[in-house]
Amino acid sequence: MNQIKGLHHVTSMAKDAQVNSDFFTKVLGLRRVKKTVNFDAPDVYHLYYGDAAGSPGSVMTYFPFPNMPAGQSGTGEVGITEYAVPTGSLAYWTARLADFGVKSIARTEIFGDARLEFDGPDGERFALVETHAEDARIAWTGANIPQGVGIRGFFGARLRLRDSGPEAELLRFMGYQTSETANGVTRLVMDHGNGANTIDLQSAPSLGMAHHGAGSVHHIAFAVPDRDAQLEVRNALLATGYQVTPVIDRDYFWAIYFRTPGGILFEIATNEPGFDRDEAPDHLGEALKLPTQHEKLRGQLERKLVPIVD
């Protein structure tokens, strides 16, 4: 395939909307680009964080289910979500995260990339990766974070699997190329992507399967330019034997889903129409936006959903 251009978004689960919003906007300095609700459970928020426009390859999204039990890490999941930051910025981020009391901060390195790993508020694992190549993406400078050290968007993600072979084969079919292997991790990269171009596969045959809960990644989405490209990808996956959903309208993109050999839920999402389809660019993420089918429930939902204080 040549239609896929890197990551589109990553969607996880949390147990507290306010804590979640504070972490991404006040600690990491990302922009909340949409405040809406879960299509299937409209009494639960769906929050989106990214760069100024919510560009594909920058957006982390969450379903904060109140008081949800913590997930259990293991295989068959996205183990680490990785953000790109400029070279030389990890000292700034080490101090900043420590000042905010972020847990399990650790400097690491793999494939020559300096990394800073840390836990999110629900125990989910993140990494800031210094990018050696020029990254033209512009950081959202929320929370007074200087442009020179701000998060540019995703670097990629690390998938934790019992056997990484079938997942690697799938990703190569999707347009990724194997780059290198070290310490049980195989790196695949997407040439000419959107900047969020890297997937690392970690083989962990001795671990049990992950159990979803707060802090677990629900699915990881890959970007295609438009619906025509998405249809080409869907047809190719179906022809290979994957069970793929019909196209689903998610208001800000169209989506299809399928389960990988390693048990991870993959999504293919369009870059169109974007997060400004129902809000002005200067006011993204401010008002509660509801899917059309749930607009009739606005009064009920506004009474039930705990307001998020910015």
From TrEMBL:
Stored InterPro entries: Extradiol_RC_dioxygenase, Glyas_Bleomycin-R_OHBP_Dase, Glyas_Fos-R_dOase_dom, VOC_core
Keywords: Dioxygenase, Oxidoreductase
The keyword Nuclease appears for this protein: no
Record-linked PROSITE patterns: VOC (PS51819)
GO molecular function, one term: dioxygenase activity
Pfam families assigned to the protein according to its UniProt record, in alphabetical order: Glyoxalase
Organism domain of life: Bacteria
Keyword Oxidoreductase: yes
Domain (VOC): residue spans on this chain: 6-131, 153-271
Protein name: Ring-cleaving dioxygenase
Native source organism of the sequence: Meridianimarinicoccus aquatilis
